[in-house]
Amino acid sequence: MAKPDDRSDNMEKIAKNIGHTLQNMDEANDFIKAHGNEMSEEEKQQIKEKNQRREQSIEGLRDEIKDEAAFSKTR
């Protein structure tokens, strides 16, 4: 038997994921600042590209929060 769709805490979970992703971005930037002179340009570029993907993910998560807010208003 399938569980009922419980979306009551989705916004909270999404917000938590955004916070963790932002924290990871900050840590990656701090790592480059602290160790950039020991890293190859390729390694630094990989970290920067990963942060770009994280930023895109955050945009998507923010859109999901908007969707969840709209859904909760219809209930």
Automatic annotation (TrEMBL):
- Top-level division of the source organism's lineage: Bacteria
| Residue ranges of the region described as Disordered | 34-75
InterPro entries the record matches = SASP_thioredoxin-like
Which NCBIfam families does the entry mention? SASP_tlp
Tell me the protein's name.
Answer: Small acid-soluble spore protein (Thioredoxin-like protein)
Q: Name the species this protein comes from.
A: Sporolactobacillus spathodeae
